[in-house]
Amino acid sequence: MSVHHYPTKAMMxxxxxxxxxxVLTGTPILLSPPGSAALYILGPLAALFLVFGARTWLRHRTxxxxxxxxxxxxxxxxxxxxxxDMRSEEHTSEL
Length: 95
Hints:
Elements: E1 2-5, H1 8-31, H2 37-61, E2 63-66, E3 70-74, E4 78-82
Antiparallel strand pairs: 1-2, 2-3, 3-4
Helix pairs in contact: 1-2
């Protein structure tokens, strides 16, 4: 069986980018008065960095296991696919 996952060292850059973006966009939002333009301008950007960080975390905890019988992906949900259920389709292109 082979097991594949993202090592922590490989994911650290994405975690740093997500945290840095959240600090840069979230701090002005927290320090500005309610209803200010900072909320409307920086709010969507902060949400984007939050989603990026969440996706990075999900990708980091996903594990792919492959053996002679099947491929299993374990993450937020677990799914598996037997090698016998896979098929190949030939694609031809005409010029």
